[in-house]
Amino acid sequence: MYNKIQEFRAWLVEERKINPETQSKESTRKEFMQFMEDYNTGSYTPIRGGEYADMSSDIATRKVLQHG
Question: Is 67 left (phi over 0), alpha (psi -120 to 50) or beta?
Fold first, then answer.
């Protein structure tokens, strides 16, 4: 969870219209499960600079970092 905390908090505010500061631990856990489902299925694309992110560059960067 901690690797995606910033994206998760942005998703809560932007997509779910929820203030992360007001969530209980249980509610946060349930919302995180939904976030990960959206993230893993490609239903959620982070927005940067007002435009949808080019995920291909993110994927390429991750592959380089993983494989050295």
Answer: alpha
